[in-house]
Structures are given as structure tokens and as C-alpha cells.
Amino acid sequence: MRKKLLDSFKGWGISWRYISANRQAIVILTWLGLFSALANGSVPYVAGRFFDAIVKPSTVLVWNTNLPFWAVLLFAWGVLQLIALSVDWVWDIKNERFGIGILTDYKADSFSRLLFLSTEFHKGRKTGEVMESINRAGNGLYSIVSRVVVDLAPKFLSIVVGVGFTFYMNKSLAIVLLLGVVLYIFILIRTVPEAVPLQRKTNKSWQKAYGAVHEAVDNIAMVKQFAAEFFERAKARKKFEDAKSIGLTLERIWTNIKFSSRTIVFVVQLIIFILSVLFIQAGLMTIGELLAFNAYSAMVFGPFVILGQNWQTLQNGLVALETAEDVLSLPSEEYEPKGSVVPKVTHGAIEFKNVSFSYKKGNEVLSGVSFTAMPGQMVALVGESGAGKSTLIDLVSAYYFPTKGAVIVDGVRTDKWNLRALRGIIAIVPQEVSLFNDTLEKNLAYGVKKHTKAAIERAVREAHADTFIEKFPKKYAQVVGERGVKLSVGQKQRIAIARAILRNPKILILDEPTSALDSETEKFVTEALDRVMAGRTTFVIAHRLSTVRRADKILVLEGGKIIESGTHDELMSIEGGNYRRRYELHVGLV
């Protein structure tokens, strides 16, 4: 029981981290809540005395004038109400700002932490599931802070005031009221933890459902190409129905909890009314005191009733925060590991020394790989899909580190490099180019801190991208759409080449950069690449073997091992060699 109760509140630590970071707002809200509690807490007592003053008229001397006591009490009641309304109005404004501020901080922090997680994490998780988890957590935190914690805080201060007045008015009824409150809290503590595991399961089901939807929308072109709309709709519907089924079970639990809580409130109020009648008949209580006590009963029970009604919201938020924290608490990528260095002079010399690599709980993807790549050299990687070409490139960029051996760049192991500095001397032209839904100019200059408009235009001309950019109505201010959807594949590749030229790297990585270009454009781009490759260490992942003929070194990979290495002519001279067989198949000699 104790463990279940503690598990249900794990999210409090996260909530408190953001609440405590806004101490000034908390102090202001606390003082406003205190004034509100005192003002609201005095109203029922004054109202009760007002009704008694009507039943038993009397006068009071105010500024040398005899006034009916009920009129004085009515004036006091009005003043207290105005004070309470004014304080509550200011409190509402401050509370809303506080809640929105915390929501903003949480989502900004979460996005920041996501960015700094490793490439391995991002490749292994569905974006939709992760974003849904964070959105749920952010909204949950907002609800916890603004609707439960801060909203209920002044009301619980009112409880103290209310209990004080009830004991002053009638100790017997006050004890009955307190016993009811204790029983109410006991039932919440006993029943709520049972719903927590189911809440976690519900959240995970919704994450999977939104993950499927995000994935389908993200790949909408493929969905359309295969006319798979009905298939994707059915798949998403199934996941939503699964989440709905678990959610309905959870709702039944919460409904039963609410019913039990309301029953307790009803029984306690009934007992108080019965006892009040007896006290009034015995002359121990007035009608005004009954009305006041009933108001204080509502004031004392009210926050607990609201808490019971919002307990589901509270628990949903806590579980959502806990679920998101499972991701956000993962260690960030170490950009500046202890003892990291930035070589004063970089040339782009690369050495693989007996490198082996395997992903977590997997077989070796690379095994005993050794080679060197010097500045000005073009190294081509050849092999079937899954041979280890992309993994080898990922090791150069230090997205991963070898499980055995070492990758050395300019005399420094990649795990000793300052990663920002290392990746700052590398430019990649991928086969599938990703662009932001922004202008061409901003996409071209992405990641390049110091650039000029002239430098961008020069890079664009060298990549032969000016021919289509100049045709756009807004030229460089043209927005390219999400992932560059408004550009053709060939246009996106030329943008990527221009971006690489602008970056002026020491190491250039080309993933078949001319594969989507027509023959005429390919000629211009190849000439541009020849210029940008001059003096730089260049890796080419080759799918078209005609691209690699000019490479200074060709590495043929199979099963994660280098089985052949040499120039085109050297490899073609190997009778029955892997590269020779591939090349002959490529040009149609066999």
C-alpha cells in the first residue's frame, strides 16, 4: 500500500522543480491567498449574525447615530465580499500567468533536452510517441500547478479559518465535520493508488496511437503512392480503440471514487443538519448560527470535494510527467567530455584503427576495420545495404563511438574531441535531404554562424542551384515547405550541396549526391563537387559505381569488414574480386 502511494506521487518531484523556480510568484500568490481566506472566511459568520439581527432587532451607535445592527452587518458583509472579489480577481490573473509560465518553461526545457539526446535515441524512438508524451506531461503540469496546487492552496487556508469558526460556534458539530473530512481523505488515500498502474497503461496506449498517426502523416507521400489510406486509417483506429478500452476501465474506477466521496459529504451534512435541529430546539443554537455553520461546512469540505473531483486530473498529470521523465532523464550527449580537446590546426586526416562496433544488444556491424583517409583524398565506400557503410560514416561524425579500436581525426580520438568542434569541420550531402519549413536563404545558411549574402549566392552558383532559385517569385525568400516538399528531389540535393560548399568543411561526406540529377545538371554539379572536394577529405557512399571510378581509395565492405581496398584499376585487376564483379554487372559486361 505504502509503495503504491509513493509511486503515485513520483511526478511531484518534477512539479516541485518548476514551482520552486518561481518563488516570487509563489510568495505573491500565498499572500493573496491568505487575504482571500480571511475575507471569505469571515463572510459566513457575518451573514449568520445578520440573520440573527433581523430575528432579534437591535441598534448600534455609529458616529453618534443609532443604526440597526442588521444594517451595520449588511455593510460589513458587502465590504468583505468586495475585498474578497478584488483579491480573488488579482489572484486569478497572477495564477494564470504563473501556470502558463511554467508550461512554457517545461515545454522549452523538454525540447532542449530532446535536442541534446544522442542520435541512437532518436533513431530508436517514434517521434510521434515522444512528442505526445511531452505534450501530455506539459498539459498535466499546467493542470497540477494552476488548477490543483495553486488553485486549492488558498482554499486550504480557508479551511483553517473555517475550522476555527466552527469550533468557536459549536464544538460538537465541528468534531463531526472533522471526522467526515478524515474519512474522506482516508478513502482517497486507499483507492486512488489502485488507479495509477492503469493510468500509466492508458498513457502508453495513447502514445502508441498518436505515434502511428504521426508516422502515417509523416510518410503521406508513400501512403498515397500505395493507396494505403484505408489501411492506415484502420491501423490508427485499432490503436485508438485499444486506448479507449483501457480508458473506460480507468474511468469506471474514478467514477466509483467520486461516488464514494460524494456519499461521505452527503452523510456528514445530513448528520450536521439533524444535530443542528436538536440544538436549535434546545435553545443551544440560533438559525443564523446554523446558516453560518452550514456555510463553513461547505468551506471546509469544498476544497476536499474539488480535490476529489480534480484528483483524476492531478493523477493523470503526475503519471504523464513520470512517463515523459523516463525519456527526458536519459543522459545527454557529451559535447565536451572531460579532457576533450580542439586541435589548433585541422586538416581532416582520418584513421580507423582496428575499429569494431555494435549497437546495444546487437551483433557487430563493423569488425576490425582499419584504413586512413588523408586531406585531398576521395574515399569511396562500396557494399550491399547493411554492409556497414552508413555506420562507418556515423563513427566519423562521432554519433557513435567504437566498441573496440579507435577513430582518429587529426591525431585525436573522436571520443576525446569537442563534438561541436568536430562536427563543425564536417559537411554532409545526404541522399535524402531534410529542409526546414523556412526560406531558402535560412536553409542554405543553417548551421553556418558567419556568412554573407554574397557567400550564399556564390555557393548556390557553384552548386548550379541558381538556375531554379532565380525563377521563384521570392528568390531566396521563398519558403520551401515542410521537409522541402515544394522542391523536387534534384533541387533539394543542389541546396544540400550549396550548403556544404558554404560550410567550407575539412571533411566532406557525400551520399550519392548526384543520383537524382539529370545528365546536364549532374555535369555542372560534379564540376562543383570537384572544386569543393579539392584539399578536403571526402567520403562517398556509392550506389552507382560510375561515381567511384575517380576515388583515390575504394573500400569494399561485406558483413562489416573491409574485404577489398584500392583504386578502381587495382580492384579491377583482381580476378573474381567483389568490386570487379559488381562493376561488370553495373556496366552490363555480365
UniProtKB/TrEMBL annotation:
Per its record, how is this protein called by name? Answer: ABC transporter ATP-binding protein
- Supply the CDD domains for this chain: ABC_6TM_exporters
PANTHER family, alphabetically?
ATP-BINDING CASSETTE SUB-FAMILY B MEMBER 10, MITOCHONDRIAL (PTHR43394:SF1), ATP-DEPENDENT PERMEASE MDL1, MITOCHONDRIAL (PTHR43394)
> Where does the chain cross the membrane?
25-47, 67-91, 144-167, 173-192, 264-284
- Topological relation to the membrane, as annotated: Multi-pass membrane protein
Q: Which keywords describe this protein according to UniProt?
A: ATP-binding, Cell membrane, Membrane, Nucleotide-binding, Transmembrane, Transmembrane helix, Transport
Tell me the compartments it is located in. Answer: Cell membrane
Q: Where is the ABC transmembrane type-1 domain?
A: 32-316
Which Gene3D superfamilies does its entry note?
ABC transporter type 1, transmembrane domain, P-loop containing nucleotide triphosphate hydrolases
Signal sequence span per UniProt?
none
Per the record, GO CC terms? plasma membrane
- Pfam families, alphabetized: ABC_membrane, ABC_tran
Record bears the keyword Cell membrane: yes
The GO terms describing molecular function are: ABC-type oligopeptide transporter activity; ATP binding; ATP hydrolysis activity
Where does the ABC transporter domain lie? 350-584
